[in-house]
Structure formats: C-alpha cells, structure tokens
Amino acid sequence: RAEPTRDVFVREHARAAALEHEVGVLHWDPVLEPSCATGSRPVPLEDPRETGGLRTWRIRQRVTRLPLSMLAQGAWALRRALPNLWPDGRPPDLIHAHVFQAGALAALATLGLRLPWVVTEHYSAVALGRLGRRDRLQARLAYQGAGMVLPVSAALRAGVERCAPGARCRVVPNPVDLERFRYVPRPPNEPRRLLFVGRLAEIKDLPLLLRGLARLRQRRDDWRLELVGDGPERARVEGLVAELALGGLVRVRGALPHAEVGAELARADLLVLTSQWENLPCVIAEAHVAGVPVVAREVGGVGEMLTPATGVLFRERDPGALADALDAALDAPFERGEIAAQAAARYSLAAVGRALGEVYAEVLARQPG
Hints:
It is a single chain. The chain is of the alpha/beta class. The chain is built from 14 helices and twelve strands. The protein has helices spanning 7-18, 48-51, 67-81, 100-109, 124-128, 133-145, 154-163, 206-217, 234-243, 258-266, 282-289, 319-331, 336-347, 349-365; strands at residues 24-31, 43-45, 55-62, 95-98, 117-121, 148-151, 192-197, 223-228, 250-254, 270-273, 294-297, 311-314. The strands form three sheets. Strands 9-8-7-10-11-12 form a six-stranded parallel beta sheet, with helices on both faces. The longest helix has 17 residues, at 349-365.
C-alpha cells in the first residue's frame, strides 16, 4: 500500500509461478519506529485487493538500525515462519526471493536446511555497479549460494555476474497478464495518441520527453500526449508543459490503478519512454502485448525489447534525436497484431510460468537425496 507501483514486479512473477505450482508469498516488513505494533510471526492477508488472489502473509517486525542485526532478525523471522505457512506444517520445497536483500535473508534462514532458493533480480543499481559495500556483501551472499539467479534482462545479468562471478544465471523476463493487457484492433486515431506511463521521477527524464515533443511540434501537430503517473517531479513537469506552451498537446493525468492502464494502452498509438536507465520495463512489455509500438531511449535492457518491427530506439540524450524517432514512428507501418502475438509468446504469465517451472525443476534436481 505504501508504494503501489512496486508490487507489480513481485506479484506477476508469483502469479506466473502459481499456474503450475502451489505458491505462497511472504513479505518481511521491517519497522524502525518503536510505537508501531509488530511481531515476528506471519499474519495472513485475506484482502484479495492486496494479495492478487495469492496466499500471502506479512511479518511486521521491529528491528534495530544496525544492518547486520537487521539482516539476522529478518532471517530468524523467515526461518520461524517457514513451517507455519501451510496448515500441514510442511515447509516449502524452494524459496523464490525477489531482489538480493531478500535473497540474503533466504541464504541465512536456510543454513543447515536442505532448502534451496532462487533470486529474481530487478534492482537497477546492480546493473549500474552502484551497490555500496554492505549491499555488495549481501548480493554476493544471495547470488553465490542461490540455485539460480534470474535477472530480468541481459543487461542486469551482466551486473549480477560482475558482482558474483560464477553465479548460475538465467534471464527470465517480467510477465504480463493477457487478461488485463490485450490487443484490440481499432481504426487509426486522428490526432495520434501518444502515451507515457510511469512514475514522475528524475530517472524517467521527463524534461527530455517534453523538450523532444516541443521539437516535434515544429514539424507536425497531429498528435496528443497523455502523461499517466505521479511522483516527486510532477510540479516540475507541469511547469515545463506551461513553459514550452504544450498545454494543448500534453495532458498530465496523474496516477491510475494498474488495472486501468490496460485500457489506456488499448487506445494508444505509441508508448514513449525516455528513462535514464531501465532494466526490463514492464510498461514496454504491456504495450507490446496490447499491440502498441514503442519509442524509447536505448538504455539498460530496453534494446533487448525493441526491434524495427516493434518500435524505434534513440540513443542520445537529445530532444532532436527524440523528435526524429517520434516522427519516424508516427509514419511507420507497424503491424500491431504481430507485435501483440510476439509479445504474448514471450511475456505471458503462462510463458514465464513455464520458464520458472524449468528453473525450479533444475534446481531441485541438484538437491542431494
């Protein structure tokens, strides 16, 4: 509830795995404030709006500020929780941790147990080599003992391998719910509808987006942009829209529930992304599943997602380069149905669920006994 845009990364992987396996989700929620009610036992969450239909528990545990002590407390709570999650008292066959901090908890909690873990990595700082000393130690602990590390992009895999040479790695992308994001054939829009979806934060480089649109307006005005999202840069974005006199072409919509983003994509002609860095952005996969081509800056794993048949890449942090890419994309004869079909084969819950199932089987087959 505190950061509703971040739960998607874990929830959709868990839903994909749940297509073929019995899955429970355990969220360790460390609390520093002494006034908060906490415990060290898992509390089940019953509200399907919070759990996505998955069996889910939360441990809200009061912890100290010392990093090593915090890690030990979390590992202790996880170890205590494992046999108490299902009615039969049987611990899981495997732990699937998300991000190295959770992987480090799994590594410590399973000491002396024949219980393997895998780690899906989403964190951009791993790929960028920006982990501090303490985080690097946690990451190595998670990666080197894991049965498999599952970075969501090849760019992120390279960062994992630099951090922990010898770690077993396999790229498994972020999945997309085809019921929520789907291709809907429709006649072309006049004017063309451009869409940005994301957090209004510095890393998304929205000034570059708006200045690129100002350049595009000098060539053509047969388009409108919807900015869907909220965040710390919203006031700056709205001020720049006014400064660049884009008010008639750009509308700042604010945040929408994830369930409503699919409807926005279904009406879009292009998705635009100008981020300074991305791993494997869910919004590009969601756009492609909806048959929407993408204009994006080639950073991180973005280049792994786009081909000339599915969008236009630009490299320079330059408004003119963005305007060129948008101009070309607006006139390109994209086959939206083919974009959707190819994306569904790669990013569907079923496709990612099969990939996860193969990983689980391989890791469990290596277990002694």
